[in-house]
Amino acid sequence: MAQDPYKELGVPRTASADEIRRAFRKLAKQYHPDKNPGDKPAEERFKKVSAAFDLLGDEDKKKKFDRGEIDAEGHEINRGFAGDPFGRGGFDPRGGAQFEGVDLNDILSEVFGGRGGGQRAGFGGPTRGSDVRAQVTIDLEEAILGGRKRIAFADGRTLDITIPKGAVEGQVLRLKGQGAPGRAGPGDALIELAIRPHPVFRREGESLVMDLPVTVPDAVLGAKVEAPTPDGPVSLTVPKGSNAGSTLRLKGRGLPDPNGGRGDLLARVQIVLPDPPDAELERFAETWRKQRPYAPRRKG
């Protein structure tokens, strides 16, 4: 049985939507597969946290869960007879249970006109179709900005799905009624998201980071350079005297935040020498080293 999603996220049932999102982000950061390579328990924990957020992060599903209409996996709950109204315990809805010597199936037969419980979902009759699972790989830009993606199921069906903004690795999207058919209705489709590694951008916790190649003259003298972002290239000012490892901040070009906005993209300066080596630059460096030697020191 699936764990209580509130317990999975470590939040009380009175938690607000923001508190739920913050809890998920914290746990996703802690157990993300990229941070725990080869750690199966961490991977399983990440999947459970993602599934819990898939339920509690959806206002409609959260309300249904709180009312006891769906379980922790999002399945509808067929309550039938909730138990002995006189406080003498419940029963197994699969049949055969009795209350003080009275066969429950006899009662059901009277209630449903001699049909018993056999034709009712939850009492051995028509059942809901099973859920189907699939995985779709998306680009980092799609995870950040959202978008549409077409997936194919093993039975040959194709379906267009919406990738939400701020999607994370291992997040599971539930598509109601897109699972296997059943007499009591179809099941759901559970789509797990995998994010393809990006050649330029990478996630470090809740930050989006990239390396920014800068020439020696631009680092020494300062310059405006073209920098890539998930939204397209922009002009970025490299300050005069920038050192390797300096961090430049591009406002609003990073990951989505819980309030519906965007964080910043952090560009780390990487000073790149000419390739092939430049003879004039080498002569200049040799003269500089002799006439103006200096020893860099760590700050702080």
In spatial order, strands of the major sheet run 8-9-13-12
By CATH, the topology of the domain at 201-291 is: HSP40/DNAj peptide-binding domain
Percentage of residues in strands: 15-25%
CATH homology group of the domain at 201-291: Urease metallochaperone UreE, N-terminal domain
Keywords for this structure?
3-stranded mixed sheet; 13 strands; elongated; 8 helices; HSP40/DNAj peptide-binding domain; alpha+beta; 4-stranded mixed sheet; 300 residues; single chain
Walk me through the structure.
- By secondary structure, the protein is α+β, with helices and mostly antiparallel strands.
- Among the domains are: 128-197, Urease metallochaperone UreE, N-terminal domain (HSP40/DNAj peptide-binding domain, Sandwich), CATH 2.60.260; 201-291, HSP40/DNAj peptide-binding domain, CATH 2.60.260.20.
- Helix content is 26%, strand content 23%.
- It has eight helices and 13 strands.
- The strands form five sheets. A four-stranded mixed β-sheet has the order 8-9-13-12. Strands 3-7-6 form a three-stranded mixed β-sheet. Strands 1-2 form a two-stranded antiparallel ribbon.
- A hairpin with a 6-residue loop joins strand 10 and strand 11.
- The longest helix is centred in the N-terminal third of the chain and has 17 residues, at 40-56.
- The chain is elongated and about 90 Å long.
- The model is unreliable at 81-123 (pLDDT under 50).
